[in-house]
Amino acid sequence: MTTDAFSVPPAWGKSDLAGDVHAAADKAVRVREMFAAIAPAYDLNNRLHSIWRDQAWRRFAVCAAALSGGETVVDVACGTGDLSLAFARALERMGAGKVLGIDFTREMLEVARARKAHPRVQYIQGDAQDLDLPDVSADVVSIAFGIRNVQDVARALGEFRRILRPGGRLVILEFADPPNALMRWFNGVYCRRIMPVTATLISGDRSGAYKYLPKSVASFASPAELRALVAAAGFSSITTTPLTFGICCCTVAVR
């Protein structure tokens, strides 16, 4: 007797999405299954549904890291490698430096290695909450649209601080609710009604990924709450810059 895709339960079913997705005890397992399912069409959906703004947000993050050349950048939850590659290209222009892209979903890393290979980037599988890296070994730690998918955010932030050298920078890109009421309404309709349908059709996804993603944004920490979590982890000089009407925010902190 064979098992096909239709008989495999989704990573995020209707009952799973009814509660707080961040409180799920097996959130990490579900997130891994979800990203494994959508990896092949992940880049296409990112471009289309952000109207190509996702690339601009990553370029902003690279600038916010204030590279001078020669840095070791650890890009956590690197996914298919967009931000890792952006850092690598910036360091290449400066003549020195390297990037370590880390993700815990093998299928995402396979896409990264195939599409976004670069001599300054090494992609490895790993967990944001338990990085297999030495203390004070990185100059920059970045995480783009991944912090809300971590099972234990405080533990991950502690790991980021552990591997950063004194004066090293933490750069976080994450979605947020826009402060403007009209933009917030439009973004809510788009992200919770339109995007889940179109992204699911494009990817052929049956994992529930594009129903989980808007729910995970809406129920995650606000920019102010995220700053408080970063501060509690021992970081200082914390700033948050809203991008594209506040749909996305870039938070930067110093170890």
Give your account of this protein's structure:
The protein has a seven-stranded mixed beta sheet with strand order 3-2-1-4-5-7-6, sandwiched between helices. It has helices spanning 14-18, 27-38, 42-50, 53-64, 82-94, 106-115, 153-163, 181-203, 209-218, 223-232; strands at 72-76, 98-103, 121-125, 138-144, 164-175, 236-243, 248-254. Residues 1-6 have low confidence and may be disordered. Helix 3 packs antiparallel against helix 8 (181-203). The termini are far apart. By secondary structure, it is of the alpha/beta class. It contains ten helices and seven strands. Strand 4, helix 7 (153-163) and strand 5 (164-175) form a beta-alpha-beta unit.
Percent range for β-strand residues: 15-25%
Number of helical elements: 10
Following the backbone from N to C, one meets helices and strands in this order, namely: HHHHEHEHEEHEHHHEE
How large, in whole angstroms, is the Cα Rg?
18 Å
The largest sheet is: 7 strands, mixed
The helix content is 40-55%
CATH topology: Rossmann fold
Helices and strands, with pairings:
Blueprint lengths: L13 H5 L8 H12 L3 H9 L2 H12 L7 E5 L5 H13 L3 E6 L2 H10 L5 E5 L12 E7 L8 H11 E12 L5 H23 L5 H10 L4 H10 L3 E8 L4 E7 L1
Parallel strand pairs: 1-2, 1-4, 2-3, 4-5
Antiparallel strand pairs: 5-7, 6-7
Helix pairs in contact: 3-8, 4-5, 8-9
Jot down its keywords.
globular; 255 residues; disordered N terminus; 7-stranded mixed sheet; Rossmann fold
Summarize the structure.
Helices cover 45% and strands 20% of the residues.
